[in-house]
Specification:
Nucleotidyltransferase, domain 5, 2 domains, flat
Amino acid sequence: MRNQLSDISKSFRADIAMDLGTANTLVIKSGTGVIFNEATVCCFTENGAKNRLVAAGAEAQDMIGRVPRGLRIAKPLRGGVLSDMDAGRELIRYAIRHSRSGWMARQPNALIGVPADATQAEQRALRSAAQDAGIAKVELIAEPLLAAIGAGLDIDAPRGRMLIDCGAGTTEVVVLSLGAICLSKSTRIGGNTLDGALMDHLHLRHRFQIGQIAAEALKLKVTDWLDRGQMDETVGIRGHNLATGLPQTIELPCDELLIVYERHLQAIVDTVRSALHETPPELSRDILEDGVMLTGGASMVNLLSQRITDATGLSVSCPPEPLKTVAQGLETVLQQIN
């Protein structure tokens, strides 16, 4: 998208950039870096048409699974795109308010990352929510392109580059050349999907229930063991025994949960293979020589890199800070256009 960036720089000056992710929202300021980083979560009162924001960000994250009747937890994004306009507007407004700290009196202009496959309707919804939240003018840029810039890839070169960006709500596979996305494939599978798969496994196989926060903690613990090759570990899980109706801690072998991981990762590998099947020969040759770049939260799972290599024969590399590539790309673009 070299031409898109060039067009933006001619007519647009951005005060901030925003990485509105399914799990976390970041606000970036040129020359300063990340000035806001909190969970993409809101909590509302539930009172018919007069719902009122109670909390957002980190404060609302701590309320998940613990709210009394009359309160509702809302996550603005699903599958990487805006699905709750009210929550999206309030979250963006909260992020702007808590990141300004007196640095600007007027309404800011903003760059915001979006999935490469976001529809026109989804893009319009995001623009509308951002402007309703107090942003004067919005420009949208594809997140895989930003991740490639943040990872240090030379995207303007006449050479094929494949990047896999694994987020909380979606995984995107793109082939880049000459500053543009030549091919894009995505699957609405990410870190949150794996959380849900672990919850479903415990429920169906053990009649044991855990919440979203516990599922994410379990995922991180098991991921760490898998990355280290500690397959013989046993993990203790605290939750609710549906058979007895009582709180309980159960012990499960790590290799049992590996089955859940394998199903999750296979869907990502299938998306990568599908993208490779549609990649033109010259770009395929470049990718064979250079390998694949893996960014995002799931890129820290060594098991995913291994499965991609096993299925495609391609080498897989990760940038030093894979979680920060979109934010780093946004900061780079901010510097270029201002």
